[in-house]
Each structure stands twice: as C-alpha cells, then as structure tokens.
Write a structure and sequence with these properties.
The complex is a heterodimer. Chain A is mainly alpha-helical. The relative contact order of chain A is 0.18. By secondary structure, chain B is α/β, with parallel strands linked by helices. Chain B folds into two domains: 162 residues, Rossmann fold (3-Layer(aba) Sandwich), CATH 3.40.50; 175 residues, Response regulator (Rossmann fold, 3-Layer(aba) Sandwich). In chain B, strands 2-1-3-4-5-12-11 form a seven-stranded mixed β-sheet, with helices on both faces. In chain B, strand 9, helix 10 and strand 10 form a beta-alpha-beta unit. In chain B, helix 3 packs across helix 11 and helix 6 crosses helix 7. The longest helix of chain B is centred in the first third of the chain and has 25 residues. The chains are: A mainly alpha, B alpha/beta. At the A-B interface, helix 4, helix 11, helix 15, helix 17 and helix 18 of A face helix 3, strand 7, helix 8, helix 9 and helix 10 of B.
C-alpha cells in the first residue's frame, strides 16, 4: 500500500515521458475535455463567420444568461437519466410554476403583500414549493406505484400545461414585481464589478481548498495522488478560467442609455448576471450532491445496476422519488428566471423545453443506459446548444435551418460519444 | 373464473351502452350529408363544429369563442368544438370527429392552411360547408372570414414609419408555416418597407429579419438581443408581428435602456401590450376586435346551415388567394391603437382603464389615462 502513494520510479526517472502518461497523470475526464474542445471550436468558428461579433464581452454575457435556465434544469435531468428514468414534464412544470408565480405577484397575493420589497421572496418560495410538490407527486407515482416515468411525466406534460392555461385564462401576465424582475438578469439584475470579483476570488479559494483537501484525503487512505506538477497545472488552469470568466463579465459595460437612467458613470462594468450566479450555485450544489454525498452515489448505483442496488440495501424508491422532486424544483427555479427575464408570465414559456434539457444532458455525456453522467457536462451541453442557436441568429440563419443544425449536432455528439466509449472497452 | 366472466360481461354491457349513447348524437350526420344545400329548416337543428388550432393562445378562448357561441345561440344553433394543439395532423382528425358528431357547418382555424386541404375537401364533398377562420385555407369552396391581415401589416408599418421615417429597422415575424406571417410582411412592403435587406436603398434600412418558431415571446427576446449585439444597438424601429413577441422585444430593449426610444409594433390587443402603448414602450398595437370576427363567423355559419350557398352569404366579396384560388371572403377592418387612440379600447369594453394605465406616470400619460 505504501508504494501506491509514490509515483512509480520508472516514470519518475524517465527523461522523456510520453504524452499519454502526462495526460493520464492529470486525471481529467476525456469526455469533458472533448466537450470543452468542441465548444472552443464552435466559438471560434462563429467568431470568424460573424466578423468578430461572437467573442465579445457583450455576446458572451448574453450567452451566459440565455443558457442559464436550460443549464439549471439539465443538472437535474442528469440524475434522472442516470437512474434510468426520464422526465418529459419539465417544460410544462416550468410553464405552470412560472404562470403561478406571475399570477401571485400581480393578482393573487393579498394586496398588503403586493409591491413590497419582500414580495419576490414570498412568490419565489411558493413557486419552489409548488415545484417540489409536483415532483413529489410524480416521483411517488413513479417510484412507489411503479408506473413508468415516461408515462407519468408525459401525463404531467399535458396536465401542467393545461393548468397553466386555466389559471390565467390564457392571458399574458405582465409586468411583474420590480424586485422579482431582477432575477432575470439585465444590467440591473447583475452583481457589478466588486461583487463579481469577490465571487471569483471565493471560487478560486474554493478550488485551491478542494484540490488540497482531496490530495490530503487520498494520501490518508493510501490512494495514489497526482504528481505535484499535475496538481499545480490543474490549479492554475482552473483559476485562470474562473478569473478569465469574471474579467469577461466585467468587460461588459452598462449600455449608455441605461447607464444614464440609473446614474452610472461611463464604462461601468455589469458583472455576473443573477441568473448565471444562480446557475453556478445550482451546478456546484448538484455536483457536490452527485459526487460527494451518499444520495448521489446511490443514484449512480441504481442507474448502474438497479437489482444490485436494491439487494445491497439502498432505499431505491425514496431515492428515485427524490430525483424527481429535485428536477421539478429546479424547473421552478428556471421558471422564475425565465419569466423575470421576459417580465411576463406567458402560457408557452416552457413549451418544448424538455427537449433542449434532455439534449443538453445527453450532449454533456449522460447515457440513457444509466449510471453515467456528469453535472459539469450538462452545463457545458447547455452552453454548446445555446451557442449554436444564438450564433446562428447572429449570422441571420433562418429558424427552420437552426432546428436542423441543432438536431444534427445532437445526434453527432451522442454518436461520437458512444463510438469512443465502445473503442475504449 | 366466475368473477372473470362477470367482469367481461359488465365491460361488454358498458361498451354497448356507451356506443349507443354516442351514436344517437351522430345520427344527424348521414341526413345532413344527403341534404346538401337543401332544406328550409330553422337553425334549431344546426350543429356548428369549430376546430381550433391551439386553444391555449390568449385570444381564442377569451374573445373569439364567446362571440361565436353568442351568435350561434341567438339563432338557436348548437356549438361543438375541439383543439388541435398546434398539430396539423390532429386537426385533420378533429374535423372528421366533428363531422361524425353531426356538424352541419365547420369553422376551421387552420394550424397549417395547406396541410388541412384534404380534410376540408372531404368535408365539402360531403356537403358540409367550411369556413376558414382568420387563417387562409387554400380551398376554392371555403368561405374565408378574416381580418385584413395584409391591412394589419400595413397599419403596423405606417404607424412605425410615421414615428421613425428614417433609420435601421428590425422585423420580427411569426411562425414560418403560418400564412399570416407572410401576409403581414407583404402588407408592410405595401406600406413602403423594403421587401428585403438587399433592396433597402432608401431611408429605411433592414438590419435584421427573422421568423420566430410558434410566435414565441422568449425566442423573440433572444432574437432581439442578438440583433442588438450585431448592430451595436443602432436599431431605430422594430416591426413585431404580434403582441407576444413585442413583449419579448421590449424586454430585450429594456435591458439595454432603449425601451421607449425604439418604435415597436404589435397586434392582438393583449392587455400587457396596450399597457406598453400607454407607457410609451410600444408605438402601435393593431387591435382586431375578435368579437366582430366571431360574430361574423357565427352568423355566416347559421346562413350556411340554412342552405345559403357560400357566395350568397351576406357581406362576402371575392378574394384571390396567394395560391391563385378565387374564394368568397368576409374581410373585417382592424383598428390601429396608438397613444392617441387608446380611448377606443376602453370604450369598447375590451380593457379597463385601470389595466390600461397601470404604472403609467402622470407626466407622460396619454389622453386615455388622464
């Protein structure tokens, strides 16, 4: 056991190490790297085709906000697909919770609670509770009554969409509460320069801490650790990426007309948008849940081999139900962001969102066979798809062609992933 | 074993009872098919089937349907309906269902005016007249009742061009498969907007034009954000073909501080949009009193039920469709709502003053809000 914690002598003494052993020392998931590579290619490609418009702080900032809602839901969808289920009701849950929150803050809440500085908190809390309740209902029927998830969530897709229409008689509800709107982004709904840097520095500290803690933990239990240069490289690259992203967010300045309205000076940085902050927060929580908590490991175990998981003593039914509770709650979070961004509750808000969410999770490496998937992959998948769509609008590509391209990319991404996995075996 | 047989017997009995009940409703169908155009009967036996394309859009349930129902009830006719949920295939099935339920006249709000042709032809072949409601159906026998959609586009363009005679224009169109999207665009071209970016050699330049899947407001918002980025915010006017998308456009403008400074058009008379006109965020909202349309369709349906032929229905005029068909049509005029003319919608009972003037500051309020 003691030898395992030391880099093998043969590798340490060899003057010219092969690229493969260098790369494997880093212990980075190949799929993730492939996804990041694809994203960079897409970005550079669009930048060239749009004459340098794509890789501007403004467009990248917009892209981050546009990807946020699908990204948030995709993290929940990973757990569902990993455990060999599917949730087709996500779009309708989004529409229903979004419409309910819109109705609450414009009509339903008692007038004493309307228009107060804390109204948005009440509305958001009720919206999330509604999402959780829907998830519990669907999850219960799936896990405890044994009805296939495809059927239950397909029914949900119809029911929640219908309810969303009924509660507002099909009307568009607008405008929304002034504070609630800030959840949707826009320069007013962003952190600004100082707070963005603060978040960035916190993130860097977090990365350093987690790398050091993980190394210490490995040593403690006698597992091999990465060579020091690998740890250093990972640390430097991660910190550079985080700080680079914050710098880009801070390079997007308040638009002149808006800056005038709010009394900001010229070139005031906008910073991280609230929806993006929420998405990052959700991603971190979900990653910890999936990789470092028993619940997450149970989900992956159930996905890998349901019978073995059950026989091994895992509370499979409760775990499955919880995955659906999480998914619907995340749909409610996305609903808040989307309706705040649009400043309206509309009956079609989440229509067909489930397709994009599933596509994002799958492009990010989640397999329908179960047991395989990553949260960061899902977020990247959402960013890839939104980059394609937004980039194509920038290039004046017609919407039916956009749909064709997204469809082809989806199949190509999953096909490549499946082929590589087969070769690796 | 005994239980199973009893159960089977019960189920069979129930099935027979149910079929008998539904069949009694359909017994009128064969006689209606045989008596095409004949019979001087009152509208009492008249069943009118309405096929909606997507009932979940704001206006159909709120305005069109009550007006149709009222016109039918006034003549003693019966109202049947179903919803195709934006699927052309489902709509074809729905039309068959309405016929088998005994509908003598069909009012069809087409999801896809070309895909629905076989179902419509089958209906007219059976002697059941079809009214194409609001959206064009390329069938020479169908009665086309609509607002002047080209006129709507013309009004949108005229109002915006009056506010912004010179500058950069963005055009946010609706669903590509919806003929109305192109009608509106051709109306804009008639009013003086260049037909496309290449032919924009005069005062008006087109810096962005796109269709929007399903007329989705959130999609329009993303499209507008990209157009603003592509043109570094140098956009002076946006021709949005309906109010839902205008809402998305205004949200995108607001994030850049440009709302109220860029002219925006819309149609449908959505409450939120009329409020935006009062606030100055939207320049014009072409209001089509859907109640007029529903009433006209209901009254025409009753006449058709009583045996009047399509071209003899009151108020029709010939109309040449883009597909070169000559149809009879009833075209209803829309009303453009700008800041100055908002009183009309309050007077017509379409919207209350409170809803129209919500959050409108007294200093910049239009006449209707004072």
């Amino acid at each position: 056991m003691a030898e395992a914690s030391v880099v093998p002598e043969s590798v340490a003494n060899e003057p010219r190490r092969s690229a493969r052993s260098l790369y494997s020392a880093l212990e980075v998931d190949a799929r993730l790297l492939g996804l990041i590579g694809a994203l960079i290619i897409i970005w550079i490609g669009f930048n060239i085709m749009s004459g340098g418009l794509f890789l501007t702080p403004r467009n990248l900032w917009n892209l981050s906000v546009q990807s946020a809602s699908v990204g948030i839901m995709a993290t929940g969808m990973v757990l569902i697909i990993v455990s060999r289920n599917i949730d087709l009701s996500v779009g309708s849950v989004l529409t229903f919770t979004g419409m309910t929150m819109a109705m609450l803050q414009t009509q339903w809440l008692p007038s004493g609670l309307l228009g107060q500085p804390y109204t948005w908190i009440i509305v958001l809390a009720i919206g999330l509770a509604l999402g959780a309740a829907i998830g519990t209902l669907q999850g219960f029927i799936i896990a405890y009554l044994g009805v296939p998830s495809f059927i239950v969530t397909l029914g949900g897709l119809l029911i929640w969409a219908g309810l969303a229409f009924e509660e507002a008689s099909g009307q568009t509800i607008s405008p929304l509460d002034a504070n609630f709107q800030l959840l949707g982004g826009g320069p007013t709904g962003s952190l600004g320069e100082t707070l963005s840097w603060a978040v960035g520095i916190l993130a860097c500290i977090g990365i350093v801490y987690s790398l050091i803690a993980s190394r210490r933990r490995r040593r403690k239990y006698g597992f091999p650790v990465r060579p020091q240069w690998a740890e250093a490289t990972l640390m430097v690259v991660s910190i550079a990426a985080v700080l680079g992203a914050i710098w880009i967010a801070n390079s997007y300045y308040w638009p002149a007309a808006l800056a005038e309205q709010f009394g900001k000076g010229p070139n005031t940085p906008v910073g991280i948008a609230n929806p993006v902050l929420i998405a990052i927060g959700v991603a971190i929580v979900m990653t910890i849940l999936a990789t470092r908590r028993r619940f997450g490991r149970y989900v992956f175990a159930i996905g890998g081999n349901p019978e073995a998981a059950e026989l091994g003593g895992i509370a499979t039914r409760r775990t499955i139900m919880l995955t659906f509770v999480i998914m619907s709650t995340l749909a409610a979070v996305s609903a808040a962001i989307l309706s705040a961004r649009l400043n309206a509750g509309v009956t079609g808000l989440g229509a067909q969102a489930e397709l994009y969410v599933i596509a994002a999770a799958v492009i990010g490496g989640t397999s329908f066979a179960g047991g395989i998937g990553t949260i960061p992959g899902a977020i990247l998948g959402a960013v890839v798809m939104q980059s394609l769509q937004s980039g194509m609008v920038l290039l004046r590509v017609d919407s039916p062609i956009q749909d064709i391209v997204v469809g082809i990319v989806l199949v190509a991404a999953v096909g490549t992933d499946a082929a590589l996995r087969r070769r690796a075996r | 074993m005994q239980m199973n047989r009893k159960l089977a017997g019960l189920v069979a009995a129930a099935a027979i009872v149910l079929t008998a009940c539904s069949n009694s409703g359909g017994s009128a169908a064969p006689s209606a098919a045989a008596a095409s155009g004949g019979g001087a009967g009152s509208a009492a036996g008249c069943k009118v089937g309405v096929s909606w394309n997507n009932y979940t859009e704001e206006r159909w349930a709120k305005w069109d349907e009550p007006a149709i129902k009222a016109a039918l009830a006034a003549a003693g006719a019966e109202y049947l309906s179903n919803d195709a949920k934006s699927s052309a295939a489902t709509q074809a099935t729905n039309i068959d269902q309405l016929i088998s339920q005994g509908a003598k006249v069909l009012i069809v709000l087409a999801q896809d005016g070309t895909a629905i042709k076989p179902a419509v032809k089958s209906a007219t072949d059976q002697g059941i007249p079809v009214i194409g409601y609001d959206r064009l159906i390329e069938d020479p026998k169908a009665l086309y009742i609509t607002f002047d959609n080209k006129g709507v586009g013309k009004m949108q363009a005229e109002a915006v061009m009056k506010a912004v005679p010179k500058g950069n224009y963005v055009i946010i169109k609706g669903n590509k498969a919806d003929a109305n999207a192109d009608f509106l665009r051709s109306g804009m071209t008639e009013a003086g907007i260049p037909a496309d970016a290449a032919s924009a050699t005069g005062d008006i330049k087109i810096v962005g034009e796109t269709y929007t899947n399903d007329w989705k407001p959130a999609l329009a918002q993303t499209e507008m954000e990209q157009f603003l980025t592509a043109n570094q915010n140098k956009v002076d006017a946006v021709l949005s073909e309906n109010d839902g998308m205008a809402g998305g456009v205004i949200a995108a403008l607001k994030a850049q501080g440009l709302n109220g400074k860029v002219a925006v058009s819309g149609q449908d008379g959505d409450k939120a949009a009329l409020n935006n006109v009062a606030l100055g965020n939207q320049t014009v909202d072409v209001w089509k009193d859907a109640r007029e349309l529903g009433k006209a369709a209901g009254e025409a349906a009753v006449q058709l039920c009583n045996g009047t032929t399509v071209d003899k229905v009151a108020g029709t005029a010939p109309f040449t469709t883009p597909g070169k068909n000559n149809v009879s049509s009833i075209i209803i005029a829309p009303h453009p709502m700008t800041k100055d003319t908002l009183q009309t919608v309050i007077d017509a009972g379409w919207i209350t003053k409170a809803d129209l003037c919500k959050d409108v500051p007294a200093a910049t309020a239009p006449a209707a809000c004072k």
